[in-house]
Design brief:
Elements (H helix, E strand, L loop, with lengths): L1 E7 L1 H5 L3 H11 L2 E8 L3 H7 L9 H8 L4 E8 L2 H9 L12 H5 L8 E3 L3 H11 L5
Antiparallel strand pairs: 1-3, 1-4, 2-3
The chain binds adenosine-3',5'-cyclic-monophosphate.
Adenosine-3',5'-cyclic-monophosphate binds next to loops.
């Protein structure tokens, strides 16, 4: 069984679409294995997004992701990493297909509603960071 880390980012929480995102995940047949509402501290945010450290948008990304509560989830199921990324749509919500989470809700490449791990390797690292007590 594969697992992935999903975040409903502060913009998604602010817009009251937690229920819809979770419902789409469940409708697809994926399972929520862990879930927490929390506000990220700067250090955790920087570690989570460490591969983007050198990008020009990094400081603004850290400010955005720490700017309010988010929902962190471990989602599991058959090919969960790819399954959730397909539900989420492409990073830029304007390019994301209608019917996907980003395609239905977003206009902003930074405030793009959700995050999903981009590989099983990233998923393992990110799940450890958010849910260190999970086996
Ligand atoms: P996510 O899938 O969480 O991974 C990296 C995040 O960086 C991405 O979603 C966006 O929130 C953000 N991001 C990616 N590209 C840009 C960009 N060009 N400008 C601002 N933020 C970006």
């Amino acid at each position: 069984m594969e697992r992935t880390l999903v975040l409903i980012k502060p913009d998604g929480v602010r817009r009251n679409i937690i229920g819809d995102v979770i419902s789409r995940i469940e409708r697809k047949g994926l399972k929520i294995a862990a879930l927490e509402l929390r506000t990220l501290d700067e250090e955790t945010a920087k570690t989570h997004y460490e591969e983007h450290t050198d990008k020009p948008f990094f400081p603004s990304l850290v400010e955005f992701i720490t700017g309010g509560p988010l929902v962190a989830m471990v989602v599991e199921g058959n090919r969960a990493v790819e399954a959730f990324r397909s539900l989420a749509g492409t990073t830029d919500p304007i390019a994301a297909a209608p019917g996907t989470i980003r395609g239905d809700y977003g206009l902003d490449v930074q405030a793009n509603i959700v995050h999903g791990s981009d590989s099983t390797y990233s998923a393992e690292r990110e799940i450890k960071l958010f849910f260190p007590d999970l086996a």
